[in-house]
Structure formats: structure tokens, C-alpha cells
């Protein structure tokens, strides 16, 4: 009887061990699956050489991954019609390949020296001394279509003692959840300058949100005239664009403005990759906002940038006295931009009816 109980206990313990081994193998197989998918995409975007070489390398990588997954999930040796020892080496082979892939991935470095697309060909060159700011390479293109434009890069001067406002602009290019984020600063002498973190495309390259995860683009900070960077979105690309006056105390505006200048100088000295998730147009706005209010909470709307204005509203960052729906509706300036065209008064005309920008608009 005692012997039977002992055998039963051994069987139960063996069953538990087998279960733990199965769970562990399944988790490892899922890790290999994720690594295999990531590696295939990384190679698709960055593997050097002609297409046939790239496809061959990706195929080899996927074969190694699938073989490792099969080996990890096998129930018993020989279950797939082959000796267990035949499969044991595949996970190790994939691990070695993964280490080599990651080592190669770490050698990829961003650069400021490439054949850039015309609209991001120049780096912003900021200089400031006290309240006096000089920005080299401010973009002021005359856009007729996305491919037909007159390039202009200018040097402009600003007096931070005359800095009076900042506006958040959201440009919706892929549904309600995704928008490009820009900040426009206004001065009492009528000048305005817009800052925008953008991908730095190479000549002939197109934007890819997926490519932004795989070191396909460097990041650049563009400073531009509103008739360039806002009008190209509303009038040329046909995007929905909204303006919101930011509720930032006057004494804090300078900190945010200088924050952009410091970011531009950092990118001059040390180029960085653009990352769709962690280093994009919205994350820098959040980083700068935290200079003013360090306690700002993390929120899903920092990733779904189309809802960033709603997040700012909830934090008291937009014009008070209005509902968010009122600010969103009145901030939609596309019709006004189309009517304004290339008017010298473009900035004034698009702000008609925008709370906080148009003094005639009250709650």
C-alpha cells in the first residue's frame, strides 16, 4: 500500500514537472515568435545589399525561428518523425543568430549627412543671447502642390521679451486617433514661428509609421512660417487641422521656447533616430510641458496623438471657459485657410473665431 502511494506521488510530481516544462517551453516559443517577427521587420528595413540578398537573409532568419519554435513545442522526442536530438540545436542556433542580429542592429547610427528631401534639407540653427534669438534655416516654402514648390530658407530674429502666446496645432492625416503635433509661438510685433518635430526623409523616401520603429528615419526639428507649415497641411495635403490657444503663463512661455532651441541644438550635435512611439512630434511637447508642470501624468493620449488636445484640456492647458467640443469646433480652420490662400494675413484670417486667439470670441 505504501509502495502504491509512493508510485502515485511520484507520478503526480512527474506530471507537475511535465506541466511546468510545457509552460516554460510555450513561453520561450512565444518569445522566439516575437523576436522572429521583430528581426524580420528590422532586416526588411535595414539589411544592406540588393533586394535578393535581403530576402534571402530574411528567409534564413524566419526558417531558424520556425525551427526553434517547433523544437520548443515538441511533446516528446521523435514526435515529428525526427529524432529529438535533431531538433535540440535549433533554439541554440536561433539564439546565436539573435545575438548577432542585435549586435549588428547596435552598429546602425543616425546621421546628419545624407541626401535629404528638400523640405528637410536644412537643420535649424539656433543662437540666443538673453532675450535675443536668431534662427537660421527657418522654412518659408511656397507650396503649390506637394511636389511643386519654391524652397526658401531664411534667417529670422526674435525678441523673447515680446513673446506673448503659444498655439497647439493638430493636423489629422490618418483618422481621428493620429495627428501631427505642432506648436506656434506668437510675438507682440506680429511675428510667428512654428516648431515641428518631423521625420527627416531621404530624397525620394516616403513616410512609414512602421519604418519609424526600425531606424528608417532620423528626427529633425523644423522651424517654419505658418504660411508654409500650416498651409501645406490644410490647403495642399487636404488634412484636417485644428488650432488651440495654450493656457501657458507668460513667464513660462520663454522656458518652452528655449526648450525647443535646446532640442534643435542637441540634434545638430548628436543626430537621433525618429521613433514612432517614443521620440515623435507629441512626446517632445509632453517633455517640454513637464518643464513647467513636472507632475503631468502619463496617458494613452500621448500615444494616440489625435487626442492630445483633449489631454491638454483635461490638464487645464487650453483656453478656459469653453467646453472641449467648443474649442475643437472653433479651432477647425481649414475653410478659413482655403479662403485665405497665400494671403499675407494668413495667420490672422485662420484665427478668426478661435477662442483665446480672437478677442471677439467669449465663452
From TrEMBL:
It holds the Pfam family Lnb_N. The chain crosses the membrane at residues 20-45, 52-75, 87-105. Residues 150-306 form the Lnb N-terminal periplasmic domain. Keywords: Membrane, Transmembrane, Transmembrane helix. This is Lnb N-terminal periplasmic domain-containing protein. The lineage of its organism: Bacteria, Pseudomonadati, Pseudomonadota, Betaproteobacteria, Burkholderiales.
